Amino acid sequence: MPVSPPPGLEIRPARASDMTSIVELLDSAPDDAAVYQYPRLSDYPEALRPMHRAWVRGLLQDPTSLTRIAVLDGNVVVGFSSWARRAPNPDGPDSLHRIKISEPLILDEEEDHDSREGLPSIEPDKARAEAIARVREHLSRTSPFQSVPRYSLQGLAVHPSYQDRGIGRLLVRWGLEQGAAENVPVLTAGETRGVRFYTSKDLGFQVVKGSEWWLSRDCKDMSEQEAREGGNRGWESIHGGVSGAQVVWFPPGLSLEIGGVTYRG
């Protein structure tokens, strides 16, 4: 049963000085796709640090991304979220573009300690990495929400020591409040644990119809029936597979028919 957030928890926009702490947080909380692609990751959690740093650096310097974090004691980063807002493009009324929602941060290059020197090096399982890339690319091409103005949750992580304490929900609710204020949906994607989290009663996301996917231990696509019958129980280690989907949240009162499906808040 979830417990209350830790006393003194603060949710705020990230600062330049938070970058290293955010990267270390991401090292500690890999998502299911990373675990699937890097079978040795639990032994070398810091091996993905260069990749995490490059990604976070890009987010913090991008005015169309807003990174918000959960902080304890003023500087201990225990949660992370990153957001984007897609709106109609005035130069192309039939398309969307990302709009400015933050001020880009000036990062000190001298404080960038991220090199591979001293860090373990691990390679992904090639077949699994290719399978994950394939399903993600397919989702990006076929998503019925491509032309729908929305907020997008680009990433979410909570330190393992502070999970199940409501921190992830607090980070997500900021985006839901923004979506409600502007009367637009909130879209994200996740793997097995993420989908369960987003679609919980507390948050109320809906699975986007047709977006679910399942991969077996040996990277084969599986049907929903095969997965439900136990050939692959998603991320559970006994089977070694992974699953995922896009999920969407609608503000109360908003109803849209998208891709032949009616979604309601």
From TrEMBL:
N-acetyltransferase domain: residues covered: 86-223
Source species of the chain: Apiospora aurea
SUPFAM superfamilies: Acyl-CoA N-acyltransferases (Nat)
Family matches, as InterPro entries: Acyl_CoA_acyltransferase, GNAT_dom, Trichothecene_AcTrans
Record protein name field: GNAT family acetyltransferase
Gene3D superfamilies the record matches: 3.40.630.30
